[in-house]
Amino acid sequence: MTDIVQPSLVFRMEAYPVDRTRIAQQPNFQGAMDLSLSLCNFQNGKDEARALGIDAGALSCKKSGQKPWNVDEVVRVMEHGGHLVPLSYLAHRYGYGLVMLETEAERRERALRERVATLEREKQVLVEAIRGTSS
User: Rounded distance, CA 92 to CA 98, Å?
Assistant: First the structure.
């Protein structure tokens, strides 16, 4: 029997763990990846390669710009660091920024909070009317 291992997914990664201008100032995607890797706080190159599932020699070539980063590797860097720096860089390069999408549960919670606030205001108006005071 094969064991199914569910990955530990970080659902809310930080889009801008550093000042946005620092991300935008990177001269190219390689600079964004260097910044992204620096935020991962790896102890050394071997730990970095092992954690990212990349051969140490290939990682060295990628960091020096001799080999390109593939999408899966970029995703692993972002997931390991818990941030979206490379994605933020690319979005900014094309004139966009990143915003966190509201989940269905968050939307429902917000709707309930808004409804409670409306009812509280209505209640206050009625209480003031009964007492003969108004704000």
Answer: 9
Distances (CA, A) of 92 to 21, 54, 105, 135: 10, 27, 29, 47
CATH of 11-99, one of 1.10.600, 1.10.260, 1.10.3470, 1.10.10: 1.10.260
Model pLDDT, residue 9: 52
Q: What is the pLDDT of residues 114-132, one digit of tens each?
A: 999 999 999 999 999 999 8
Residues of the chain with pLDDT under 50: none
Distance CA 85, CA 105 (A): 26
